[in-house]
Amino acid sequence: MIRRSQLDLRKFVAPEFICGYGALQLAGRCARNFGVKRVLLVTDPGVRAAGWAEAVGESLTEAGISFSVFDSVSVNPRSTQVMAGMEAYRSEECNGLVAVGGGSPMDCAKGIGIASSNMRDILAFEGVDRVPVPAPPLICIPTTAGSSADVSQFAIITDEARKRKVAIISKTLVPDISLLDPEPLTTMPLELTLDTGMDALSHAVESYVSNASSPMTDMHALEAIRLIRDALPAVMERPDDLDLRFSTLLASLYAGLAFSNASLGAVHAMAHSIGGACDLAHGRCNALLLEHVIAANYEAAPDRYDRIGEIFCPVQDGRTSPAESIAAFRRSLGITGTLAAVGVRKDAIGTLARRAYADPCMVTNPRRLTCEDIERIYERAL
Ligand SMILES: [Fe+2]
């Protein structure tokens, strides 16, 4: 059982952000306010094809700011892509970064920023508070609602050589400003809408039960869960509804403010391990692990998990556990697979568990889990 007091010392870090329809068009003005002359615009081929990178480019041009585009970013951004972006940033003589896309381009842009300002390989910054020199100005424009890279002090980069994800956590990774516009979300495929929504739910749940939670993060986490409960199923039915899209963006914002300051837990530690080894969608990994981690953690924070369960199942009948409520929500959205179905093999569990055990997110999990405990959770989710 965790003992918490509201008198425990806590800090809360958040970027400046502008929310609402048309926020994307403020990119040029914001860059000019930061004194930026030339921007490296970091995006990916899908977002570029949807026209959002071009729209941001127009805003930069109207503000008199030149730019070059770097779109060599994959799902689960790789260290080599970050270093290629750093080369582009330096050779193009840029002095600011604009990221347009989901978590992958935003994390890649964060990596390019700190690698450039410190002139070091991105993998050297793994862990907590290991970035000595701040990054150049960074503007983030999310086109998905879930990663919260647009507000967080996290960047997750894949170390290809070792097939593992590296978590970099530093205040220097908080963007200077984020522009939260619901319109770019309308071109996102439904499967991505679902996966990123479940990522946001995992952020909110894990930060609410985290050892480092606080009254400031609790408020954001609980409201994020309520918003996801209502808006995610609805937006799957009406993906062009801007109000619903904005509700999912708000949910991502609140969940991001919560987890950026309270950190995460075993769901993310275990999802990072799978994502690094198998290159799977991060949100889907979380969705398939969440209920199993809740079941394993429950006794360490029963009141908190019960409060989450009540959001999904308001009349507690004494039979529906929080883990079952979350599982029912997942199934109602059409996520019915297992880890085995997405390619995780039983003989890989030992290695996956050892890597998850060493992930920085495990530090704030409400229950101290051994490698054997983690293996058992993987087995149940298989
Ligand atoms: Fe996540």
User: What is the domain total for the residues?
Assistant: 2
CATH architectural designation of the largest domain: Up-down Bundle
**Residue share in helix:** 40-55%
Low-confidence parts: none
Number of strands: 9
Order of SSEs: EHEHHEHEHEEEEEHHHHHHHHH
The ligands found in this model are:
fe (ii) ion
- The averaged pLDDT comes out at 95
Strand order of the largest sheet: 1-9-6-4-2-3
Class based on secondary structure composition and strand pairing: alpha/beta
**Overall 3D form:** globular
Count of DSSP H/I helices: 14
As for the CATH topology of the largest domain, it is Dehydroquinate synthase-like, alpha domain
Largest sheet: 6 strands, parallel
Instruction: Name the beta content range.
Output: 5-15%
Give a brief description.
This protein has helices at 27-33, 45-49, 52-62, 79-91, 103-118, 190-209, 215-237, 242-262, 266-278, 282-297, 302-312, 322-332, 349-358, 371-381, and strands at 16-19, 38-42, 66-70, 96-101, 127-128, 138-142, 154-159, 164-169, 177-180. It has 382 residues and is α/β, with parallel strands linked by helices.
